[in-house]
Amino acid sequence: MNYLLAVLLCFCSAAFASADSKTPQRIIALAPHITEMLYAVGAAEQVIAVSDYSDYPQQAQLLPRVANFAGVNIEAVLALKPDLVIAWRSGTPTADVNRLQQLGLAVAYSDPLSLDDISHELQLLGQLSGHPQQGAQQAAAFAKALQQLRENYQHKASVRVFFAMGTAPLSTVANNAWPQQMLQLCKADNPFAAVKGDYPQVGIEQVLSAQPAVIIQAARSDTAADFSFWQRYPSLTAVAQQQFISVNADYLYRTTPRTLLGITELCQALDRYR
Length: 274
What we know:
Order of helices and strands: HEHEEEHEHEHHEEEHEHEHEHH
Radius of gyration: 20 Å
Number of strands: 12
CATH topology of the largest domain: Rossmann fold
């Protein structure tokens, strides 16, 4: 059994058995991806507060904000009297989560680490919120679509790319970073895939030596990607041929059903340069 599945199933049986198995009616989501997945499994009416940047779906923008990357507003959470708080294990400060638990609040964790974990979490959040059928349906649909994408691209010709997380400092993706997992699925050859860390800094000399055929940058849907930094390096194949790809940042960086849109967008854009 998936470790996360075992942990959350244990939470379900332990946390709610003592409450006569009542479904939580007041849920606080402490990360944008948690908010989005709760809406996807049918728990929209139960979500009473969210974290900063929880902007999808649109109705989530109307909810109170009680957390950001810096921490959780403990007082605001307590004032809302939630039945359940769902925290992001990799993002929500541990001290804040511990404090919420010490104050008697029920807390569950979300921590997707791979593309396949999105399916698992949809199912689990459906169970936690009392929507097991819709959660299972969403999970199955995601898993099926992800498998289809893998089958579509497993035999494609690879293309060498550089994924620019930022240019000041110059950084990229590697190992288990979300964009790297998508690059691998799309048969993109990332020369820095095995560099230490998921989001390593690199030197421009290393990029020049790698000679990527395509440079990829993410941008928010309301902002155009800026490739002007690269124009000073015409010896790069990607620059000489003006082969740049801009992808939707929300699709790439949020672990939700919309991740499928990000993979599709990335793979189809790369198809032009194979």
